[in-house]
Design brief:
Helix content is about 70%, strand content about 5%. The two termini are about 25 Å apart. The chain has one domain: Histone, subunit A (Orthogonal Bundle), CATH 1.10.20.10. A two-stranded parallel ribbon has the order 1-2. The relative contact order is 0.18. It is an all-alpha fold and about 150 residues long. Helix 1 packs across helix 3 and helix 5 packs across helix 6. The longest helix is centred in the first third of the chain and has 28 residues.
Length: about 150
Amino acid sequence: MPAMNVAKFERFFRLAASLDVDKGDLKRYNDFLDQKMYDLLERGAQAAMANGHDAIWPSDLPLTKGLQEDIRDFRAIDEQIELQPILDGLTKRPPFEVAYLDETEAELPEIAGGLSVALARSLQILEPGLKNPDYGHWDRAFRMFDLLI
């Protein structure tokens, strides 16, 4: 990841949850984002097929009220650091039996941003006052998300 992008992600984690992350943390974060976005999109593809759609509509994605609020909070943070274009490049669009509507694809970076806010804040919830997450912190947060998404 280019140094400029690393700095933006470091700033994002500070703004979202007062966390200091390093390059190793960003690799863990990227792995998390890949897996959870895949999980959401896979469920969206299943819902699209069940709803008789030939493409994944935004309404097919299982976005909880909490995740929708995190997406809103991401938008506010993103106004300061402009992370959305970087997330757009990082957000994979795996192939499924159905395609993606353009509207769905357009929302994916903000959904990834909302997941990022939720992850950062979950680290603080799991370990109040945490400043520098280590492997154990990331692992517990990932396992929690595995239960939910």
